[in-house]
Amino acid sequence: MKKLVSLALAIVMCLSLVACGGNSGGGNISNLAPATTAPAPAAEAPEAPAADVPQEMTFVLSDEPDGIDPTVTNNSFAMYVLVNCFEGLVSYDESGSIVPALAESWDISEDGTVYTFHLREGLKWSDGSPLTAKDFVYSIQRVLTPATTAQYYSMISDYIKGAKEFYEGTGTAEELGVKALDDRTLEITLLQPTSFFIDLVSMWCYFPVQEATITANGDRWTADAASYICNGPFKMEEINLGEGYVLVKNENYWDADNVTLEKLTFRFILDSATALTAYESGDVDGIRSIPSADYARLVAANAGVKVVPNYGTVYYNINCAKEPYNNPLVRKALNLAIDRKTIIENVVQIDATPAFSYLAPGYGVNGKDITDGRGDFGLSETANVEAAQAALAEAGYPNGEGFPTLQLSYYSNDTVKKVVEAMAEMFKANLNINVEISSNDWAIFYESVQAGDYEVAAMGWSADYLNPMSFLPLFKTGDSTNTAFYSDPAYDELVNQVMTETDAAAAAELTLKADEIVSNDYACIPLYYKSNNYLMKDYITGVYMVSSSNMYFKNAKVVK
User: Strands (DSSP E) along 62-192, which ranges?
Assistant: First the structure.
């Protein structure tokens, strides 16, 4: 998300993440003490662009997004377009820290509930028309309009005063806590103090979209480059469905003088081996997904492998609302039957840390990761066959007798396919249950997952913003991101407490209690913790990725 992430995008390690202080805009944070995390690796020193080489590059994406409307999608495959064509109130720099973007500064009230953002002077849309605080008001209202089908509406409705009522049709725009005080001043009033709100507004559901182009084109505004009006460092020149996107420098971007790259082509090559061939033959300058079997060779050859900390987990959804998976003992048996070490070493062939919880390590308070010392919830890196069979027998299916054929689904991807096949063999061998495997393109697959039309499905999560609260809604009753359909009132109450807790250490303690509930209920099948990797030619500099997986090209240069 979010954002949802491909297994094929992950080379996994146990990681430290970047701090995201809530006072990056110079505002008064009062008693809102943000947690701290370990520093990211230093950014590359900038190099001068080559004078005799066109400032153009092609980067391969391994999956096609289900849409590129920032107010609608929560699909991480769209992020490459969204964070380069659009920009919000704040953004991330090369070190992963929150920095001012369209808002040059902000103030926070003493009680922590009112944020006043001061926009830069002279902001424009890519068509040259003025961009003002009113555009943010429109965009947030659009997210909160049910007909928009915004996937991340809860990221606004859960936090902003009057937002839930506006979404449900019981509140008005006047009662919504989002106001344009003038063209350059945006005021947002929260339901309660939220120490990570500045991190939240970095998400693309808070990006502005232009009312005029949506009014004129409806939902089709994202289908044509001419109507895809944006405000980021690049603008859309071509939309080639099934092939890719062509972006060019946006001369109306507020910081256009510091954007060197003139043309950025995103090309879809879904097969990672084919993408690697294009990279090694010089047809493209970078690829997002590295075939696992080639990873060690490429590292040894110094072929341009980039590894970036990622706050995320690869796991499989279990439909907790469907028989027999609504039984925690069944879910426990599935978890115990998995040999995570074999999947990591022999299937994905990466250096990874086995996961026993959906909540990834990497977020620290007072210099210590909050997950340090966390238990394993009865799981281990190898399968515990005896315990798995005992749990399944206690659930009423001794030796797998009477257990229905397990439907194991995934989205089309060569690495995910290998993992699914390995898991199916483990379920059969260790639990004596039959498994049927099915796959589909991402958009169709995820639509079925959202509708609950699945049993066990390939999934994963990279934090949308760098705070554990990005994970907690995944299992909160009724949340739009809760595609496992898990529900526990005690868990929900803990999540609500974390949302309002302003002390970082106390919030961490509550987070671990919530994690313990879900993990002891085996609400999903965690496999391993992630980092991101990609390939980039050494003549391309300035491209950077942060721990939320957002990848920025605004500082890119072709240096030789």
Answer: 90-92, 98-100, 103-108, 114-119, 178-182, 185-189
Other Cβ atoms closer than 10 A to 349: 18
d(CA 343, CA 321): 27
Residues contacting residue 473 through CB under 8 Å, at least 6 positions apart: 154, 158, 479, 481, 482, 495
Question: In angstroms, rounded to a whole number, what is the distance separating the alpha carbons of residues 12 and 341?
Answer: 12
**What is the rounded radius of gyration, in angstroms, for the C-alpha atoms of the chain?**
23
Choice between 358 and 4, residue whose per-residue pLDDT is larger: 358
Show Cβ contacts of residue 255 under 8 Å, excluding neighbours closer than 6 positions.
233, 554
Across 288-441, the runs of DSSP E, i.e. the strands, are 305-318, 353-354, 364-365, 368-369, 406-411, 435-440
pLDDT of residue 41: 42
Q: E strands along 148-304, which residues?
A: 178-182, 185-189, 234-240, 244-249, 263-268, 286-287
Q: Report the relative pairing of strands 103-108 and 353-354 from DSSP bridges.
A: unpaired
* Contact in structure between 268 and 244 (CB atoms under 8 Å): yes
Can you name the residues that pair with 7 across neighbouring β-strands? none
Angstrom distance (rounded) from CA 211 to CA 208: 9
Looking at 144-226, list the stretches that DSSP marks H as alpha helix, in order from N- to C-terminal side: 154-157, 163-168, 197-200, 211-217
Rounded to whole angstroms, the Cα distance separating 228 from 82 reads 11
pLDDT at 38 over 80: no
Q: Mean of the pLDDT values across residues 94-106?
A: 92
- Residue 218, C-beta contacts closer than 8 angstroms, at least 6 positions apart: none
- In angstroms, rounded to a whole number, what is the distance separating the alpha carbons of residues 510 and 494? 6
Instruction: Report CA dihedral (493, 355, 61, 296) to the nearest 10 degrees.
Output: 160
CA distances from 86 to 89, 132, 226, 257 (A): 10, 14, 15, 17
Judge contact between 314 and 11, C-beta under 8 A: no
CB-CB contact of 523 with 515 (8 Å): no
Q: Which two tokens stand for residue 429?
A: 């061998």
- For residue 11, what are its two tokens? 């080379």
Q: Rounded CA gap, 233 and 259, in Å?
A: 7
Q: For residues 377 and 371, is the Cβ–Cβ distance under 8 A?
A: no
Q: Residue 46: pLDDT band by 50, 70, 90 thresholds?
A: low
